[in-house]
Design goal:
The complex is a heterodimer. By secondary structure, chain A is of the alpha/beta class. Chain A contains 23 helices and 17 strands. Classes of the chains: A alpha/beta, B mainly alpha.
Chain lengths: 594, 80
């Protein structure tokens, strides 16, 4: 819904919350359901109300538990039957500097301040530990925003007695906890309030009137930020950018003006603006966002522009470059299909409002931010939260390279007589083992991101993955695949639970980047070996249809399972009898097992 | 701005906030007359009224306002 995309009209959202919610619920889209506990240190009513809208917009249907006014700590620390029963998937703790109970006195010694800092921090740390132990779910915690006045003026930030100094140090302790705990995320209200304007954000009217720690009009900005963290945890981030060239990546039209006359580089102020934007995009690539081009240009001109000596982005920074005269909507759709990702994983950036409209109206789910003038491009892309980072794996860093290696594989495939020859030529090496701590983040990420090659589409948090890995009634396998073009990283994940002599498959997924490489057979081989070792005689497979996983409707049949049952909704149950003389089905991947 | 014009605008704000196209308010309307008008929705209402009229209520005003009539008095005192 356009009204919920950055930059949104906060007053409108607050005023129209009820009708926006109705419209979202009536739009017929499918959503994952999540239970979110909001533990507040101040009023949270409208925060929850608006958070619901943003989450619905992101494809998440939340159910909320909201603590009584300012009961965040009591709710967390003491037995709470209601919260236990609610069994949250996620906990958000909305505290602010209004919850800091004690600040340093001017007469305090450095040791006293240090002790107070420690005491203030422990108040939170015991709560997080307790919540983690009781609920095993991700926690989102506000940091502290600055107070709206400074008793010591500018010295407030450097003097140990200053409240700003104190809050900064407290925040730093929070961040350290975040660095050391995987399922713990900081909601940076210190940054948000700075962006919003602290004097407005902290307007005491709202505290004394309604016990809101921030002004009401700032609530959508806060809720949006929380929603971005949540949707990122559930794998709903965007994955790739599709960028226009002329007047988007540089100033001028390369076909008319010639590459040498483009505005890029340090010579002119406009050139500097585009350089800064290119630099920003290059860093997006480093966090795993795939950069692509869709430009109405002769390819030769597009390449000449991209090879401009003052440009930060070079042709090799892009996965796909589509420079032609076809409608951009066609090119954008092609990019999605060639990258093997869903259209709704794309963000389209173009200075031309007409192109934006075509893409927006003909391609569902593609995000098309209203980029206005070039000096605002970075802010708009950045604050839209498309790529909110909640975990950063090695895979993210190398993603563009992996996809490019895929393109090369495709080219080579065309030069082989038979497909099997081609697969042999790839020199594939697989590692298939039970979940290991090194890969927990990536495994959780895959369970949340994979839609197409996913038999049950069960989503797991990292905490759940770790629990399952430690539980001996489960069999878990991850599969890594490497070939002569590069390392694909972890691409397949299996989870099964044992009941008597049978293994029930809770999850079987594979990344589409390794389709048709026989990796699924290699996974089955290892699964069968593992079962045989544990005395399991048969495997039950389950397929639950979704809007996106038709591709694997007959997967179990291909794997040699027998169909046992078909439900009205198309769900199927399959059975595989493990024979003593099982012969490996994979013949092209050299596999290392545990 | 006339009192009638203020009411016309105010009715729209009430209808938006409480998502009810039937609402008509007058001088003596209070929170007990509108089903969803509780202390939490009151926050939104005040904010939406401020926005619609381009005014800002002080805390003293919000605290003492007894009915919609008094709200309109304050609005008319602040707009030209």
């Amino acid at each position: 819904m356009r009204e919920l995309e950055y930059p949104f009209d906060s007053e409108y959202i607050l005023k129209k919350a009820k009708s926006i919610k109705k419209a979202l619920l009536a739009d017929g889209s499918s959503r994952i359901r999540k239970k979110i506990a909001v533990l507040g240190g101040s009023t949270t009513h409208d925060i929850v109300k608006v958070l619901e809208l943003f989450l619905l917009h992101y494809g998440i249907e939340p159910q909320f538990y909201e603590s009584e006014y300012a009961q965040y700590w009591q709710d967390a620390m003491f037995d709470n039957a209601e919260l236990k029963e609610f069994a949250p998937d996620m906990i958000y703790i909305h505290t602010s500097n209004r919850n800091v109970q004690e600040y340093p006195e001017l007469s305090d010694t450095a040791e006293t301040v240090e002790a107070l800092l420690d005491k203030s921090y422990r108040h939170y740390e015991v709560m997080w530990d307790k919540l983690q132990e009781s609920y095993h779910c991700p926690i989102i915690q506000n940091n502290f925003e600055y107070p709206f006045y400074r008793l010591l003026g500018n010295k407030e930030v450097s003097d140990i007695h200053g409240r700003i100094s104190f809050l900064n140090r407290l925040n730093e302790r929070f961040y350290r906890y975040a660095r050391e705990h995987n399922h713990f995320y900081i909601n940076d209200i210190n940054y948000l309030s700075a962006c919003y304007g602290l004097d407005k954000w902290a307007d005491p009217f709202y505290w004394h009137m309604y016990k809101y720690a921030l002004c009401l009009p700032a609530v959508p900005a806060l809720s949006f930020n929380i929603a971005n963290i949540i949707k990122s945890i559930y794998g709903k981030n965007k994955k790739a950018l599709v960028l226009d060239l002329d007047n988007t990546l540089w100033g001028g039209v390369v076909g008319d003006d010639g590459a040498e006359n483009l505005e890029i580089g340090q010579e002119t102020s406009m050139g500097q603006v585009y350089s800064e934007f290119q630099g920003y995009l290059k860093r997006q690539k480093d966090i795993g966002i795939m950069l692509n081009i869709s430009s109405k240009n002769e390819e030769e001109n597009a390449m000449a522009g991209l090879k401009h000596p003052d440009g930060t982005l070079k042709p090799e920074d892009f996965v796909l470059i589509k420079a032609n005269w076809e409608p951009k909507s066609n090119n954008v759709a092609k990019i999605a299909s060639e990258l093997n990702i869903m259209q709704d994983s794309l963000v389209f950036v173009d200075d031309n409002p007409a192109e934006r409209e075509i893409v927006r109206s003909s391609l569902q789910g593609v995000s098309v931010p209203e980029v206005t003038s070039p000096e605002q491009y970075i802010r708009i892309l950045d604050h839209s939260g498309f790529f909110e980072v909640t975990s950063l794996s090695e895979d993210d860093r190398l993603r563009s390279e992996m996809y490019k290696a895929n393109m090369e594989r495709k080219k080579e495939q065309e030069s082989f007589g038979s497909y099997e020859d081609y697969l042999h030529s790839l020199d594939m090496k697989g590692v298939i083992k039970p979940f290991e701590s090194l890969y927990m983040a990536r495994i959780a990420q895959l369970t949340n991101k994979s839609n197409q090659f996913n038999l049950t589409t069960r989503r797991y948090t990292q905490a759940e993955i770790e629990q399952i890995a430690a539980d001996s009634s489960y069999i878990t396998l991850y599969g890594k695949l490497e070939d002569k073009f590069g390392d694909n990283g972890v691409v397949s994940v299996l989870i099964g639970h044992r009941e008597g002599g049978l293994l029930h498959m809770d999850l079987w997924l594979m990344s589409c980047r390794v389709l048709k490489r026989d990796m699924e057979y290699a996974m089955l081989d290892t699964l069968v070996h593992t079962c045989a070792k544990k005395g399991i005689g048969g495997i039950k497979g389950y397929y639950y249809p979704t809007a996106k996983n038709k591709m694997v409707e007959n997967f179990y049949a291909l794997m040699g399972f027998k169909l046992e049952k078909t439900d009205e909704d198309g769900s199927t149950v399959w059975y595989y009898e493990i024979e003593a003389d099982y012969a490996n089905k994979n013949k092209v991947i050299k596999v290392v097992e545990a | 701005m006339t009192r009638e014009a203020a009411y016309e605008k105010l009715n729209e704000v009430f209808r938006d906030v409480f998502d009810d196209e039937e609402i008509v308010v007058n001088d003596s309307t209070t929170s007990s007359d509108i089903e969803d008008w509780d202390s939490l929705e009151h926050i939104n209402l005040v904010s939406a009224v401020e926005q619609a009229f381009g005014i800002k209520f002080s805390m003293g005003q919000v605290v003492t306002m007894k009915n919609v009539g008094e709200m309109v008095d304050i609005i008319l005192g602040q707009v030209d």
